[in-house]
Amino acid sequence: MLHIDHINKTYPNGAEALRGVDLALEAGRIVAIVGGSGCGKSTLLRLAAGLDQPSSGAIRVDGEAITAPHPAVGIVFQEPRLLPWLTIAQNIGFYIADLPAAERRERTDWALARIGLAAYGPRWPRELSGGQAQRVAIARSLVAHPKVLLLDEPFSALDAFTRASLQDALLDLWQAQRPTLVIVTHDVQEAVALSNRVVVMQPEPGRIHSVLDFSLPYPRDRLADAFVRAERQVLQALDSSLAQPGRSPRPRREAPLQDPPLPALLPSHLIAV
Ligand SMILES: Nc1ncnc2c1ncn2[C@@H]1O[C@H](COP(=O)(O)OP(=O)(O)OP(=O)(O)O)[C@@H](O)[C@H]1O
Predict the structure, then answer these.
(1) Which family does the entry's similarity section mention (predicted)?
(2) Least packed by Cβ within 10 Å: which of 32, 68, 131, 174?
(3) Residues 6 or more apart whose Cβ sits within 8 Å of residue 101
């Protein structure tokens, strides 16, 4: 279980990135974190990964404090960060180098097959498309069997079709071990497609605005009424999270299309329309 207990984070320059953030996420939970730019989403993930320290508060996984990178917590970034001097198989096996060779090979082969890249083990990262490389990055984290996997906008650099197929690949890999997944995304459709809880954050200072729970069955039909209703709920929560004094409300789709300023947060599936 991942516990985020009353986290505050102020950077040395005085930026108050997080104030009083509390979350308790049981094993197997998939949580999406959404919110306007600068509301502390990446900061929260970096703290949960042990890559930075909170100013106060604590992060624990199954009771153990996370104060530095820890094998129980994996993290995947927007870019795959594969090591170019290692083959695809070696990249996937990178975090399980301590395991006996046979087990390492077994896990690596399983992951390669599961992400549809069974023949790619001996190839090099430069030979992969962006979507394939990100599949490898996710597989690399999951073969280490983390209790928690954090994903910071993992699919935002990909086209809509590749993104949907990677969401499926992520769910498929997650099914095997069911770690807690925490995914930061700017895409409301992605949040609803993947998660059973959406945490909406708000900025200045970064804090939790609202938490929405969904129990839609997998695989999720993006056209189903319940899915569309859930998306609307999240969009409404986002609107209200951004409706602070001094901030313009997020433009709605029916607004005149005369070179509108891009809002701080516009779901990519709306941009694609
Ligand atoms: N290393 C840093 N030093 C100082 N301030 C920082 C640092 N990193 C982030 N901040 C500030 O902390 C706040 C939260 O930033 P963070 O990157 O966590 O937000 P975010 O929600 O992930 O934003 P975005 O959606 O734009 O990526 C912002 O005001 C940002 O300027």
Answers:
(1) Belongs to the ABC transporter superfamily.
(2) 68
(3) none
The residue contributing the CA closest to ligand 1 atom 8 is 43
- The DSSP H or E segment spanning 46 is helix 41-48
- Give nearest CA residue, ligand 1 atom 16: 40
pLDDT recorded at residue 139: 94
Stretch 234-256: mean pLDDT, rounded?
Answer: 68
Question: In this predicted complex, what is the ipTM?
Answer: 0.98
Mean pLDDT of 95-116: 94
- Does the CB atom of residue 206 touch ligand 1 within 6 A? yes
Q: Please, what are the domains in the chain? A: 2-79+147-247+262-271 (3.40.50.300)
Say whether pLDDT at 147 is over 50.
yes
